[in-house]
């Protein structure tokens, strides 16, 4: 098959009419969720801000994880994943706009972060020493820095790939390989500090040196789950179905299985180190989350994020099954949200979990906004990097 034939065969796009219709529906869903969320803010401000923070971090972790997958693809010069790279890029393209959704968190800092309130608990002896870090101006400055870095990395990670569709310039691939190692370092550092700022600082007494990795392990699994679901949905298009075969699904399944185990390893490592050290300032975080009603949520988080997907994806044929792979990906997204809920909600409801309509509304808010932006980016673009130099190898990929 000649290169010209290959480019013609993989030039598959979404139907513009279907995209327009879907974006209208998603826009309506977003506006409805925004209206309900605003009502929640008017009457239950505390609950609104907490559920909004969880929803924001849920959506952000998916976008950051997608950027990770794009960069790691270019870092290792992967060939098999070329045909499934576009969904990663489409998700990454939303990163320049996430700062807009951070604004309610800025306005609600006094409700969300104990150290940002007018009165700080004087019984807490760690807060004064952390004031140089935990203060509003520096907190906001760091947030701006994170969003600028993520927007820059997102653009550098996807723009050359899209230009290559038109130019066929191999130099675009080389530029992506050069930015990948630096980009991954910047992404890792900024995401770690963001998780410290937006989750760990909710309890300023507590600290964990592995917490950033714990956040990242969840983000990687959640983003790969969303990418997998997108690929499975796109395979409803006959031409895309012919391009992305069971061989590619198998590798997505292997990655998902591997990082489920990685999440469990990091989660257990953090728990084990804190339990073994038995330092009161550290153990209190887990005591609050493993005793009483919260203990049931802790068990659900462990079973849902590890035991169930581990068993589902263990077999080779399961990783190649559309239904098992799709169910596992959707399941993991749901339990990633529950993991974030388990990390954040006990700060405000130590007596036990109280799920509310606002929790659902804010998840719908962010998912509809993300889907609306993703479809807008995908509209008119090829669903496969049609002039990538390793496309032929990806099309012919087989698991040995």
From TrEMBL:
<feature type="transmembrane region" description="Helical">
    <location>
        <begin position="294"/>
        <end position="314"/>
    </location>
</feature>
<feature type="transmembrane region" description="Helical">
    <location>
        <begin position="50"/>
        <end position="72"/>
    </location>
</feature>
<feature type="transmembrane region" description="Helical">
    <location>
        <begin position="24"/>
        <end position="44"/>
    </location>
</feature>
<feature type="transmembrane region" description="Helical">
    <location>
        <begin position="182"/>
        <end position="201"/>
    </location>
</feature>
<feature type="transmembrane region" description="Helical">
    <location>
        <begin position="255"/>
        <end position="274"/>
    </location>
</feature>
<keyword id="KW-0472">Membrane</keyword>
<feature type="transmembrane region" description="Helical">
    <location>
        <begin position="354"/>
        <end position="378"/>
    </location>
</feature>
<protein>
    <recommendedName>
        <fullName>Quinol:cytochrome C oxidoreductase</fullName>
    </recommendedName>
</protein>
<keyword id="KW-1133">Transmembrane helix</keyword>
<feature type="transmembrane region" description="Helical">
    <location>
        <begin position="93"/>
        <end position="113"/>
    </location>
</feature>
<feature type="transmembrane region" description="Helical">
    <location>
        <begin position="321"/>
        <end position="342"/>
    </location>
</feature>
<feature type="transmembrane region" description="Helical">
    <location>
        <begin position="213"/>
        <end position="234"/>
    </location>
</feature>
<feature type="transmembrane region" description="Helical">
    <location>
        <begin position="133"/>
        <end position="153"/>
    </location>
</feature>
<keyword id="KW-0812">Transmembrane</keyword>
């Amino acid at each position: 098959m000649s290169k010209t034939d290959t480019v013609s065969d993989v030039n598959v796009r979404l139907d513009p009419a279907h995209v327009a219709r879907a974006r209208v529906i998603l826009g309506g869903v977003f506006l409805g969720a925004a209206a309900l969320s605003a009502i929640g803010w008017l009457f239950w401000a505390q609950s609104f801000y907490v559920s909004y923070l969880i929803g924001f971090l849920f959506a952000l972790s998916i976008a950051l994880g997608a950027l990770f997958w794009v960069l790691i693809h270019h870092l290792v010069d992967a060939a098999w994943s070329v045909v499934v790279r576009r969904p990663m890029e489409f998700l990454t393209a939303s990163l320049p706009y996430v700062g807009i959704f951070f604004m309610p968190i800025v306005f609600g800092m006094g409700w969300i972060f104990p150290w940002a309130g007018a009165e700080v608990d004087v019984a807490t002896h760690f807060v004064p020493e952390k004031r140089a870090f935990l203060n509003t101006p520096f907190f906001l400055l760091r947030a701006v820095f994170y969003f600028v870095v993520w927007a820059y990395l997102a653009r550098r990670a996807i723009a050359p790939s899209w230009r290559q569709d038109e130019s066929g310039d191999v130099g675009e691939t080389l530029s992506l390989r050069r930015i990948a190692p630096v980009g991954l370092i910047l992404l890792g550092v900024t995401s770690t500090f963001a998780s410290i700022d937006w989750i760990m600082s909710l309890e300023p007494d507590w600290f964990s040196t592995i917490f950033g990795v714990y956040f990242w392990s969840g983000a990687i699994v959640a983003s790969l789950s969303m990418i997998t679901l997108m690929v499975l949905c796109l395979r409803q298009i006959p031409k895309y179905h012919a391009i992305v075969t069971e061989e590619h699904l198998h590798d997505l399944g292997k990655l998902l299985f591997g990082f489920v185990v990685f999440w469990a390893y990091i989660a257990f490592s953090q728990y084990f180190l804190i339990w073994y050290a038995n330092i009161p300032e550290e153990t209190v975080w887990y005591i609050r989350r493993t005793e009483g009603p919260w203990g049931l949520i802790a068990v659900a988080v462990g079973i849902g994020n590890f035991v169930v997907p581990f068993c589902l994806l263990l077999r080779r044929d399961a990783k190649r099954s559309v239904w098992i792979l799709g169910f596992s990906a959707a399941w993991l997204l749901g339990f990633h949200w529950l993991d974030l809920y388990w990390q954040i909600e006990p700060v405000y409801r130590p007596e036990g979990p109280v799920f509310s309509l606002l929790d659902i509304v804010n998840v719908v808010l962010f998912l509809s906004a993300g889907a609306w932006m993703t479809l807008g980016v995908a509209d008119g673009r090829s669903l496969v990097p049609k002039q990538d130099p390793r496309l032929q190898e990806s099309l012919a990929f087989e698991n040995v």
